[in-house]
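Aim 2 progress update. The chain analyzed this quarter is reproduced below.
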Amino acid sequence: MTLPDRLAQLLAQGITAAQTAGDLPAFAAPLPVVTRPRQSDKGDFSSAIALQINRSVNEALAAAGRPTLAPLQIAAAIARHLPADPCLARVEVAPPGFLNLFVAADWLAQQVEAIVRRGPAYYHTDLGKGARVQVEFVSANPTGPLHFGGARNAAIGDTLARLLSVCGYEVQREYYINDRGAQVDTFAATLWRRYQQLHGLDVSIPPDGYPGAYMISYARAIQAEHGDSLLALSEAEAIPIFRRLGLALVQAELADDLAQMGVFFDEWFSEQSLYDSGVFARVRAILEAQGDLYEKDGALWFRASRYLPKSDRDEVFLRSNGEPGYYASDIAYHYHKFIIRGFDWVIDVWAVDHQNQAARMPAMLLALGIDPKRLSIVLYDLVTLKRGGVEVKISKRSGELITMREVLDEVGSDAARFFLLSHSNEARIDFDLDLAVAQNAENPVYYVQYAHARVASILRKAAAQGLSSEGANLSLLNHPAELALLRKMLQLGEVILEAVRHLAPHHLPHYALDLARTFTAFYDACRVISSDPADAELTRARLRLVEAVKITLAHVLELMGMTAPETM
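Predicted structure tokens:
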């Protein structure tokens, strides 16, 4: 339980006690909301619950023929009946009816021991209670290397999966392979022609084919394995074979590139399998039986307008040539997710250009009898690469679009993940390649990781001198810089919950930078290892604090998929 949640429960108990004592009338009170005030002199936390329940209180009083109370009086009644708790030093009532809560410094200090003993689990919760959640992300078309823009999808999706895992959810990571349709057929035809060209045949790639040099690389890989044994095939025979061989090459390349970023999937799900297994046919039968499909202009349409009253736009389910419409596979795929595999919650991470598709997903779910609230779609905006303040669009190596691997090779996975997470999902990112590799405090990645390395250095120095933190008297931690560091550390639990509840992983890098800055302020203000024998107990206590900082900082880096270096 986070500290704000604990304080909210204390306030709820105070309201109940005030009602029992007759200082407040009987009424159904909401759970108080506890927030951090902007001004530190207003307490560590504050609640406006007295203002929120003012109307309910006075309606109940009026009904009972009793005098009404001002919000300030309601707040005072709650404060009088707050139960004692070691985390709470005092509560102050402030106009027009706020309750300002001050956390006990001694309780704060004792949390150091709890963090050291429990490790990262200190910050974990059971919010999900074992619910099964699937995070489907990246899912770029398997027709070539992953463009760097897809790296943002990877960073968001993988970090959300990490956050959900520490909040009590059973998480599955999935990549959806769009391995059917015209794009994949064109990819296979291009690959077949490139293979023929490698053997000296005078053929051209299709007019709408894939001209990238990577297609030649794929063709060479097939040539290395099969030699010229495939040349005897007709085009009709070759296309299915080159589709299979090419998709396998691309998937292996995608998996390798994503592994370089620390991203791994539990399932690579084939779109084609929806058709081969009969799932698509089953979904079609369900929709037809419900009257959700109708014919028009030679095509079969899904009656989306039945489920989205504000929209009169229906969607093509089957085109006139018998091929599925743009949304048809989505319906079958999400039927498979919810009905066949039984996920409680599904999170799809999509680029912002899929916003129209996202808006129509509720209609598809409603048609299948699925509560749309069980699906969350995270939309993220574009990434612009810059070097020297100028936008970079073309790869130096190939003269084509810049791939994820190329950027990872230049800046590293840690920098890429931090910068790609540092903005809210909906905001565009200007990714500064120069800043990402800078070895100075201007680079937030360097600054955060250097803070961890400095913490590790302090602990190594202490170990070399035979110093231990065991049995530390933590009540000695009362310097303002120590208490500020403690308060900042305890915020991590709140940050994790905020990120999960709003599917907003950008809170993590901001918190990591704040924690690193707060630690630096502590390091500058408080000598950790003192040579003065009189300071031996204080040294022990501060070493224990530093151990807790190391656990906390390493954990937030881990949640972002980053390393926590011991030296820099």
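The chain has 20 helices and 15 strands. The CA atoms of residues 322 and 423 lie 43 Å apart. These observations will guide the mutagenesis experiments scheduled for the next reporting period.
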